[in-house]
Write a structure and sequence with these properties.
The chain has about 150 residues and is an alpha/beta fold. The protein has a single domain, classed as Rossmann fold. Helices cover about 40% and strands about 15% of the residues. The protein contains five helices and six strands; from the N terminus they run E-H-E-E-H-E-H-E-E-H-H.
Length: about 150
Amino acid sequence: MSAVKRILVDADACPVKEIIVREAKARAIPVWMVCDTSHELSDGYSTVAVVDKARDSADLYLANRMQPGDLVVSQDYGVAAMALGRGCLALNQNGRPYTAENIDQLLLERYLGQKARRAGKRSTPVKKRTTADDEAFCAALCRMLEGGGEKSR
């Protein structure tokens, strides 16, 4: 039996939605995919919540529905910080668990990156997603779903 009650996904730019659905379905764990109106999702398993395209709409929707026992999948450090603060597990799309031990550093790095971009510096290009990235995510997701993942506190 999984310790995770449900999975909430910041689905707009999530490259691992199929993996999440496959593993959740195998364990009968409900999945909520949250996206804005510029995306269309239907996987036959997840509950899909469509929010408006306003900045942070999906983030706020997720934050208002997070409950202890949820697993939140997002590449947004702010969403992850809110999840940890609400007693949830949190995981990024590459399989890196967000924890109380790493979230402050990640938020600082995000702030410094935003500051550098505002000053005109270019960010490094995003690497193309690989099969190894998907495998690492799947392994981390399965650990969390089986109760062996990182705890938020």
